[in-house]
Amino acid sequence: MEIDPFIFRLSIFILSIFIGYYVVWSVTPSLHTPLMSVTNAISSVIIVGAIIAGLAGNSENIFNTSSVFGFLAISLAAINIFGGFLVTQRMLAMYKKKRKDK
Amino acid sequence: MISANLSAIFYLISGVLFILALRGLSSPETSRQGNFFGIIGMVIAITVTFLSIGNFSSGFAYVLIFLLIGGLIGAFIAYKIPMTAMPELVAGFHSLVGLAAVFVAISAFLNPEAFNLGSPGYIKLGSLIEMSIGAVVGAITFSGSIIAFLKLQGIMSGSPITFKGQHLLNALILISILVVTYLLCSTQSSNLFWILLAISLLIGFLLIIPIGGADMPVVISMLNSYSGWAAAGIGFTLENTALIITGALVGSSGAILSYIMCKGMNRSFFNVILGGFGATDQSPSSGSKEQKPVKSGNAEDAAFLMKNASSVIIVPGYGMAVAQAQHALREMVDTLKKNDIKVSYAIHPVAGRMPGHMNVLLAEANVPYDEVFELEEINNDFANADVAFVIGANDVTNPAAKTDPQNPIYGMPVLDVEKCKSVLFVKRGLSPGYAGIDNDLFYKENTLMLFADAKKMTENITKNL
After folding, report:
1. How far is A15 from chain B (nearest CA, A)?
2. How many CB pairs under 8 A join A and B?
């Protein structure tokens, strides 16, 4: 009997939870705020689904109900992607070590 | 157009890059590189999606337009936002992830053919369940984050909103979510889908209103976690590895942060979630303690004490963020350092309104991160320090958490500031902190209260040094 592809996805999911667990525990507490903003940015990879939804309309009817939700979701996710990565970068740029001449 | 197998490989690569993005945050040196990996991963995921659809019709132009609109708004916010407003920003971003998940679920429900999930009314059962989970969790994330945002922004009162039968109502709604999901899966009725979304939005709202302002670090972390699970639910629907991996990463990240925050307050997760903590009703002991003598001083006294110290520990808290005093504080510390006084910073896990909030503010004020220490790292040093300078923190310094089992915060790990030779406590008045309890530290022999705005007081001390 063949294994349902769902099981493979579930395996990826479970293993990723474990990876997440160990990776996040190794994040230094002083970077917890950037951690939250970067997780925001990467969870917006949901934009992939939004793009599929947006492009699903046929050429005569680009804006049907389903694709409008897709387009809106593209904008929402894009706010997060750009906002999330850029604000993380802005924060990380501020973390500096003690200057040696002091 | 590229094959489904090839695009799956690329999604896997972007998933791996996202793992590396989080891995980079293990130290500030590698963190910027990590963020870069994250960006690459995102670019790969988006490009591959375009290529795999391969339909560069007029719809494609609209995709780019909407992408650009969102991108510009996001970039604008990222450059404009003050660092003190990070908690609000993150809460706002969570709500967007939630709403995006809801929208994707809606369009998948309305047009399942586009996602290879069957046809309207005949959506594959597994996909429908996954879709519903994504939509429910997304909706809860959305409405919950909106409330968190309003509370953090001060538009809505930070005090918990409770009413009779609240928990019963919430329990009933949660059960009805399960029932409606079951009915939806057996009938495929679109009305039930809308009802499901509506009650999920409602429960998100109801779950967050009873939680007080000081518990916001837990709430934000928890919503962070939810946004991850919502993304994972959608990832299963779309059979997309990048989304599944990311959802799991974000979900566990938020859960760990919630755990760390709860531990920092010595409270169980359920205690926080059930809410009502920090309500404005006063603890019985506060009345009698008001009469105790308090030593108060001015900037000159504080400057005198610090000038004669050889080591000073700064304890910042949310009040510092409110007063925007971090730059003034850094200037004061610079002056102290010129006089060869050793200065370090002590940060409690729940200082501020989100995990790591104080660290970012200090970094913004150019405080080197190797002078900033966590509670466990620095707590033993208070006994050897001459002056503790408490600015904007309160409950996290309360010695009653160690001595008084009757105290609501008993057992919470606190900074041992009272062990310092002298304690300077900057505060506007004697009012209790967010936990609504009096701080014994105010009445200690070696405590000098500095009643003033944190920023003004710090500036005055610098002048007197």
Report:
1. 9
2. 382
Cα distances from B53 to residues B49, B346, B429, B435, in angstroms, run: 6, 52, 62, 54
Chain B residues lying within 8 Å of A52, measured CB to CB: 49, 53, 114-115, 238
- CA pair distance B75, B77, nearest whole angstrom: 5
- A-chain CB neighbours of B68 within 8 Å are 78
Burial track B288-300 (b if 16+ CB lie within 10 A, e otherwise): ebeeeeeebbebe
Contact check, Cβ <8 Å, B359/A12:
no
* Residue in B26, B77, B239 closest to A83 by CB: B77
Q: Which positions of B are annotated as active-site residues?
A: 395
* Min Cα–Cα distance to chain A from B329, Å: 16
- In total, chain B counts a number of residues equal to 465
Amino acid at site B169:
L
The alpha helices in B154-240, defined as continuous H runs, are 166-187, 190-208, 216-238
Among A16-25, B207-216, B395-404, B427-436, the range of highest mean pLDDT: A16-25
pLDDT at residue B289 is higher than 60: no
Contact A29 B221 (CB under 8 A): no
Q: Cα separation of A57 and A47, whole Å?
A: 17
Upper half-sphere CA count for residue B418 (Cβ side, 13 Å): 18
Question: Across the strands, what pairs with B450?
Answer: B426
pLDDT at B31: 93
Whether B280 has a pLDDT exceeding 50, the answer reads no
Residues 6+ away with beta carbon under 8 Å from B405:
none
Confidence of residue A67 (pLDDT cuts 50, 70, 90): confident
Return the structure tokens found at B254: 């938020």
Report residue B373: phi and psi, to 5°.
-125, 150
DSSP state letter for B383? G
d(CA B235, CA A17): 14
Query: Which residues fall within 8 angstroms of residue A15, CB to CB, at 6 or more apart?
Result: none
CB contact at 8 A, A70 and B107: yes
Instruction: For residue B148, give the 3-state DSSP assignment.
Output: helix
CB contacts, 8 Å: A69 with chain B: 103-104, 106-107, 110
How large is the average pLDDT for residues B123-131? 90
Nearest to A62 among B14, B62, B103 (CB): B62
CB proximity list for B56: less than 8 A, separation 6 or greater: B50
The yes/no answer to whether this complex scores an ipTM above 0.85 is yes
Confidence of residue A101 (pLDDT cuts 50, 70, 90): very low
